[in-house]
Amino acid sequence: MVDASNLAYCHGGDREKLLNGVKRACQKMSLVIKEERILDKGFSITASQKINWLSTNWPMKFVIDAELIEESYTLFISGASAMGSITQSSNNHAKAQELLSLIQAYAPNAPESA
User: Fold this and answer.
1) What's the predicted TM-score (pTM) here?
2) pLDDT of 114 strictly over 60
């Protein structure tokens, strides 16, 4: 894989809310979920874009891993494409940012208790 983009998000809510937020974000971006694994302290999802033959960019593959660290989940998003192009790097970063923004919208942090 080339032109990778990596992002992280700390989620203070529960695993199901975060998992549902990730799935809704993937659906909103028309990503195809290829693999979903539920782990003891988190989950891992592999999703990819469909090929758009009219685009100058290669489709991206995302690996989204969540891990429980202390009392919150840390979400790692790694997005990359198999091939590169002139515009690929900025496209990959923009798509990874879009995915992260949607996840944050669908699975916002729980409000801190006073």
Assistant:
1) 0.85
2) no
| Two structure tokens written together for 15 | 């695993």
The CA distances from residue 2 to 42, 53, 88, 105, 110, in Å, are 27, 19, 9, 28, 35
Q: Identify the three-state secondary structure at position 5.
A: strand
The matching CATH number, chosen from 3.30.310.80, 3.40.50.10580, 3.60.15.10, 2.40.30.170, for 2-106 is 3.30.310.80
CA 77 to chain CA mean position, Å: 5
Q: Give the tokens for residue 40.
A: 């003891």
Q: Which strand ranges, in their side-by-side order, compose the sheet holding 42-48?
A: 2-11, 72-81, 60-69, 42-48, 32-39
